[in-house]
Design a protein that fits this description.
This protein has about 450 residues and is of the alpha/beta class. Helices cover about 35% and strands about 25% of the residues.
């Protein structure tokens, strides 16, 4: 059996290692440059690879192809593979048959990283032998090849879900839905939503789906579609007989007639969206039979995800906050909504079809100045010029932070919440967040 891996990054190299271990003839092809450490791993494992090209004669005779999530369906090589009816799958789909471990699949437009990290934290503190993979941590396939975890918590993007055929999580979580990555879905929001719901398509009666009771799009989907899984929902708007809700400033989680209660002010994570993330993670922990005392302690001592509303420093009584992971409008909405002080907002990057009008009321209420950080800021200017007192364009992070410092007064906050992808000026959102933190430390 010949396995071709397109993309020599974390998921690609992990898949290659697992494929080799399971007796496949493996070939890795990357149209870009493969990082040195990955080249070493491939070479040590005697896996053939190429970079900066796709040699069609070596790719088109594959029995199965694992495509890295970053490669779009419309890439010429992918189109050719599909025309030849060669299966093109994701890393998750490839690795799934090779493990007997339970998997918890977590997706959604926002909050999935925090929910994944928090779920992993709860299960690990609960004494389970658990791995963390998907969009974060070491690749799932790599861990299946080398470790023997009983449970995996997987953060799954819509791109990873597009490449599944048989993958079936024991517990699936959909945190919420809002328009994102529409450039990859022909600007059709329904295609993106369908992609997210693929997480539950193979689930059976003994599986669980945990999702947001308050989410309009999720509710719409359930009016027309169904799942075989048992559903639990969480809400911050109404009390639920079953599932999770708020009552008298207490967070209550009633899962399979087992009630867990905790005062909201004891949760480590702040903000409404994080309350929902905590609800989703708690439901998973209860289903996995983690002790209530452990859940309570873990929810109160959890350190949040880097680049997600991360408090960096207070300088001259101005709080600098790194929310570089906010790459869409909905994520930035959460960030602005959680601000309790006048805010200087650093925003901009590669626009994925954003509608900034949704932020208008929050910007009027909370934002005193905007620093645009991107190559093309025209849309931001059109939307917010005249809404805030000051709006300035910059093309470097250090300049953006210095300008923000000048705009901010004692008691204000400076918030990097870009609302956009980072590829115009940075390698990725992590690079953008690190540059922001360095710039703040250099003030």
């Amino acid at each position: 059996m010949k396995l071709v891996v397109l993309g020599g990054g974390e998921s690609g190299v992990g898949t290659a290692i697992l494929g080799k271990k399971k007796g496949y003839d493996v070939f890795v092809s990357d149209f870009g440059i493969i990082k040195e450490n990955y080249k070493e791993v491939l070479t040590i494992n005697k896996i053939t690879w190429e970079e900066q090209q796709h040699t069609e004669s070596l790719i088109l005779d594959a029995d199965v192809v694992m495509k890295s999530p970053g490669i779009p369906e419309k890439a010429p090589i992918v189109k050719k593979l599909l025309a030849l009816n060669i299966p093109v799958i994701s890393e998750i789909e490839f690795a799934f048959p090779f493990t007997n471990a339970k998997t918890i699949g977590i997706t959604g437009s926002n909050g999935k990283t925090t929910t994944t990290l928090l779920t992993y934290h709860l299960l690990k503190q609960g004494g389970l032998n658990v791995g963390l993979a998907g969009n974060i941590g070491k690749s799932f396939a790599w861990q299946v090849a080398e470790n023997n975890h009983d449970v995996y918590v997987l953060e799954l993007s819509s791109f990873q879900l597009d490449g599944i055929v048989n993958y079936r999580p024991d517990i699936a979580v959909i945190t919420n839905l809002s328009p994102d990555h529409l450039d990859r879905y022909a600007y059709d929001y329904n295609l993106y939503i369908a992609s997210k719901f693929r997480i539950t398509k193979n689930q059976i009666e003994t599986d669980y789906l945990i999702t947001d009771h308050d989410d309009v799009e999720i509710n719409k989907w359930f009016q027309k579609n169904k799942t075989n899984a048992k559903i639990f929902t969480f809400s911050i708007q109404q009390e639920l007989e079953e599932g999770e809700y708020i009552e008298d400033k207490n967070f209550k989680s009633n899962i399979n007639n087992d009630l867990f209660t905790m005062p909201m002010n004891e949760l480590a994570l702040e903000g409404k969206h994080n309350l929902k993330n905590a609800m989703a993670a708690t439901a998973v922990a209860q289903l996995m039979k983690v002790r209530k005392q452990t859940i309570r302690e873990s929810l109160s001592n959890f350190q949040g995800a880097e680049h997600r509303l991360e408090k960096v420093l207070k300088i001259q009584n101005v709080q600098y906050i790194n929310d570089s992971k906010a790459t869409n409008v909905n994520a930035t909405f959460f960030a602005l909504d959680s601000m309790n002080t006048p805010t200087v907002w650093i925003v901009g990057g590669v626009d994925k079809g954003n509608d900034y009008d949704e932020l208008m009321s929050l910007v009027r209420e909370k934002v005193k100045g905007i620093v645009c950080l991107g190559v093309d800021n025209e849309k931001l200017f059109k939307t917010f010029n005249g809404v805030v007192d000051v709006m300035i364009e910059t093309t470097s992070m250090s300049e953006a932070v210095k300008i923000a410092q000048k705009m901010a007064e004692k008691g204000d906050s400076v918030l990097l919440s870009p609302c956009c992808a980072s590829f115009d000026l940075f390698e990725n959102y992590e690079d953008r967040g690190r540059q922001f933190k360095n710039a703040v430390h250099n003030l």
